[in-house]
Specification:
CATH class of the largest domain: Alpha Beta
Radius of gyration: 21 Å
Shape: globular
Largest sheet: 6 strands, mixed
Protein name: Sugar ABC transporter substrate-binding protein
Keywords: Signal
Distance between the termini: 49 Å
Strand content: 5-15%
Order of helices and strands: HHHEHEHEHEEHEHEHEHEHEHEH
CATH architecture of the largest domain: 3-Layer(aba) Sandwich
Helix content: 40-55%
Pfam families: Peripla_BP_4
Structural class: alpha/beta
Oligomer: single chain
Subcellular location: Cell envelope
Number of strands: 11
CATH superfamily of the largest domain: Response regulator
GO molecular function, one term: carbohydrate binding
Length: 378
């Protein structure tokens, strides 16, 4: 798949102009212009260096407020997930947490197409559970009837990585995991890591699937804000998640060949790493660009330790599933969520100097015990 462009003739003309100017995708900036670094940019760079120093140190798990009474048992939970490995890890965490409470769990995996996802939500709405945690493949506007039916039946709902602003007064979705606040923090940390490592403005590209604008848009926007603030706007490459491990690596290579001097590649999700190192080596680009990914896993930690990837942002993965169950417990028992309805979760920047294990995905320390203690279940 090629980078998505509209109006073929206009696209060709724009592409030619980009090549002529060597400035397509926001590659201009103070560095390119030969100008000095402004006071505002220096402040952004200083903030980036401070954040990089902080988040490359071990980050503690956030405290979980204790419930006033033990968490309810015997509830029915539905989990709707997707086929991406990161989705499966999230849903596995929710399943594990729920089963420790004696809940009955039904997990349904959509094929990430609009039709497949709506069909799965039809199944859930046909037999409303006590609680639902779902990872959307479409905006909530496409499943409004299903959500309304679930809300009318008393189902408590949390949404993981929402594609739109999900929380509305008296709406069916009353809590989110990986919401707007979490996404903005991730994008900011990705941008700050790049700026701090480069020690100033630098040529970079953010790779993402725009089909996930609602959930990943804040990540991209925050990344671009930091890079632009430091003095050089970031380029953007649009790909499709359907082509992970297929054409995504060659698209990244093609972008780098068309934009020489790009030093950092920021991946919206760690799965984009599939096949990328081999593609970079085949193109003679290995060691010439630094790869930064989001949602670090065991494979990315191994790559960082081996030197084939520069850095990755560690997120709550299995722990995010526990966070979703915690939200649902509080909704079912009438305990106010407050900021926990859309809180930024645990995050850490992993680089070669702080990778201590490569056998498993990184997670907040002792997160399961922390939640079970708060639920009076452990």
């Amino acid at each position: 798949m090629q980078t998505r462009l509209s109006t073929p003739v206009a696209a060709l003309a724009a592409g030619a102009l980009c090549l002529a100017l060597a400035a397509c995708g926001g590659d201009g900036g103070a560095e390119a212009d030969g100008g000095g670094t402004s006071a505002a940019a220096k402040a952004v760079i200083a903030d980036a260096e401070a954040a990089f120093a902080k988040y490359t140190r071990p980050q503690p798990a956030a405290p979980v407020p204790a419930l006033p009474a033990p968490a309810p048992r015997g509830k029915r939970l539905a989990v709707v997930t997707c086929a991406l490995p990161v989705c499966v890890t999230l849903s596995d965490g929710a399943e594990e947490a729920a089963r420790k409470l004696g809940w009955t769990v039904t997990t349904l995996q959509s094929n990430s197409t609009p039709q497949g996802f709506v069909s799965v939500m039809d199944q859930v709405a046909a037999n409303p559970p006590d609680a639902l945690a779902y990872i959307p493949a479409v905006p909530d506007s496409s499943i409004r009837p299903q959500l309304a039916k679930l809300q009318a039946a008393g189902t408590k709902i949390t949404e993981i990585s929402p594609q739109t602003a999900a929380l509305t007064p008296n709406g069916p979705v009353q809590a989110v995991v990986f919401g707007q606040n979490d996404a903005a923090l991730t994008g900011t940390l990705m941008g700050q890591a790049v700026v701090a490592d480069a020690d100033g403005p630098v040529k970079s590209v953010f790779v993402w699937d725009p089909s996930f604008t609602g959930s990943w848009g804040p990540i991209k926007d925050a990344y671009q804000k930091v890079l632009k603030g430091a003095g050089r706007p970031a380029g953007v490459l649009e790909v499709s998640n359907a082509n992970i491990g297929k054409t995504v690596p060659s698209q990244i290579v093609s972008y780098l060949q068309a934009h020489p001097g790009t030093r950092y590649v920021a991946l919206a999700v760690v799965d984009y790493n599939a096949g990328l190192d081999a593609a970079l080596r085949a193109a003679g680009l290995a060691g010439k660009v630094k790869i930064l990914s989001r949602a670090a896993d065991a494979a990315s930690l191994k790559a960082i330790q081996a030197g084939t990837q520069w850095a990755s942002i560690g997120l709550e993965l299995g722990a995010a599933g526990y966070r979703a169950i915690d939200q649902l417990i509080r909704l079912m028992t009438g305990v106010p969520l407050g900021d926990r309805a859309d809180a930024a979760g645990w995050q850490q920047i992993y680089v070669k100097g702080n990778v201590t294990q490569t056998s498993d995905k990184p997670e907040p320390p002792d997160y399961a015990r922390t939640y079970l203690t708060a639920w009076r279940a452990g």
